[in-house]
Amino acid sequence: MITNEYINRAIDYILNHIDEEITVEDISNYCCFSRYYFSRIFKMETGESIYEFIKRVRMERSAFRLKVEKDRSITDIGSAYGYSSSNYSSAFKKHHNMPPYKFRRSIVHKSMMNPVFRNTQTELLTWQECSEKITVEIFEDCTVIFERYKGSYGDLSVHWGAFLDKYKEYITEQTRILERSYDDPAITLPDKCLCDICIDAPAGCTLENICTIKGGRFAVYHFSGPVEHIYSAYQNLFSVWLPQSKYKIDDSYGFEIYKKTDCGSRHMDIDICIPVK
């Protein structure tokens, strides 16, 4: 768990400005610490230096764009993250072990291999079948109590139990349970995936670990099935529905709303909410 308020503030700043030129000094100054001190505590908390984290997120977010924006040129995507055409190809190949054009050709096939539950088969639906499960909805901003984790999404059930017990006094029948994931595990290594587990914060809540999940227009995949198949639902959104729909993925991050969970059977009803424009 990443508990340091300033580290989380730095991570939020990086994630929200990843398509801009960001330096270690920018992050240190934003959090009001010296570069040396903040670089040290950032690496202690996250396992990565600030520079490594920025570079990795930039490479992985651009790779995600290659995956879901199939009609957008590689040069345009690289440029959006601050790279010239040749520099982007070189940096991308160094990080992903293949040039961008090969990655784009192979990513759908790679996405069929579930890295979270390796023995679970990923099934891609037709666009029509996906559309029957998806609605486009408008959400308001919501304030949540959250804890942030870095690691495999497959381990979250353990953290969820502890989280819900820790904040049980804030939970009522109206409280929503949400999960905000920042990475596509088909692209990001499992041990580097970021996730916030959240509940609605009651009015007047004075806890320090509160943040706002921004609202807007979202494509909502209404999922019902075993937890092992949630990965398939995401891949159907990313690889089937989005590329063929009239919508484009927005720059903010998505989240899940837990509707119903059966811990015994591991069956879940959740809404997977992906920002679109």
UniProtKB/TrEMBL annotation:
Keywords carried by this UniProt record: DNA-binding, Transcription, Transcription regulation
Pfam families: GyrI-like, HTH_18
Alphabetical list of InterPro entries matching this protein: AraC_E-bd, GyrI-like, Homeodomain-like_sf, HTH_AraC, HTH_AraC-typ_CS, Reg_factor_effector_dom_sf, SmbC-like
Superkingdom in the source lineage: Bacteria
Name of this chain's protein: AraC family transcriptional regulator
Acetylation found in the keyword field: no
Record domain HTH araC/xylS-type: where: 8-106
SMART domains noted in UniProt: AraC_E_bind, HTH_ARAC
